[in-house]
């Protein structure tokens, strides 16, 4: 891999699944828009979102089909892959623009309830109702 990318984000919409013809037969690609937030500390020392960026994420094969089945808008995902940039034509202006896309090796669903218990020690000490 040239540009390794690892990030957590939220799906901005449904996963689009496409079946395409290739040299070795048909293959499957899933496309999804993911918002990756940037976090920082405010003056009180609390974490807050200080920015973020959207990326188009693609994944291929059986993993693409699994993403289409299991991931919904708003899902928290961990994306591991490679950033690639290329030139594309803007549909509205007709100008050439640079586009950055992530070609994923893995996309994993993050379980937010477990995250909140693990990363907030004060909550981990509380008893969970049965």
TrEMBL record:
**Would the keyword DNA-binding be found if you checked this record's keyword annotation?**
yes
Q: Which GO terms describe its biological process?
A: DNA replication
Q: Which UniProt keywords apply?
A: DNA-binding
Domain of life, per the record?
Bacteria
**Gene source species:** Hydrogenophaga pseudoflava (Pseudomonas carboxydoflava)
**Molecular function as annotated in GO:** single-stranded DNA binding
Which Pfam families does this chain map to?
SSB
Record carries keyword DNA-binding: yes
Return the Gene3D superfamilies for the record: Nucleic acid-binding proteins
Q: What is this protein called?
A: Single-stranded DNA-binding protein
């Amino acid at each position: 891999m040239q540009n390794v990318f690892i990030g957590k984000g939220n799906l901005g919409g449904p996963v689009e699944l496409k079946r395409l013809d290739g040299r070795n037969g048909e293959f499957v690609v899933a496309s999804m828009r993911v918002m990756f937030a940037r976090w920082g500390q405010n003056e009180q020392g609390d974490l807050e979102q200080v920015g973020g960026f959207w990326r188009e994420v693609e994944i291929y094969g059986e993993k693409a089909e699994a993403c289409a089945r299991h991931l919904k808008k708003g899902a928290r995902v961990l994306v591991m892959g490679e950033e690639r940039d290329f030139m594309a034509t803007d549909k509205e202006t007709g100008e050439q623009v640079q586009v950055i896309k992530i070609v994923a090796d893995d996309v994993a669903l993050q379980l937010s309830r477990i995250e909140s218990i693990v990363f907030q020690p004060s909550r981990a000490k509380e008893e969970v109702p049965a």
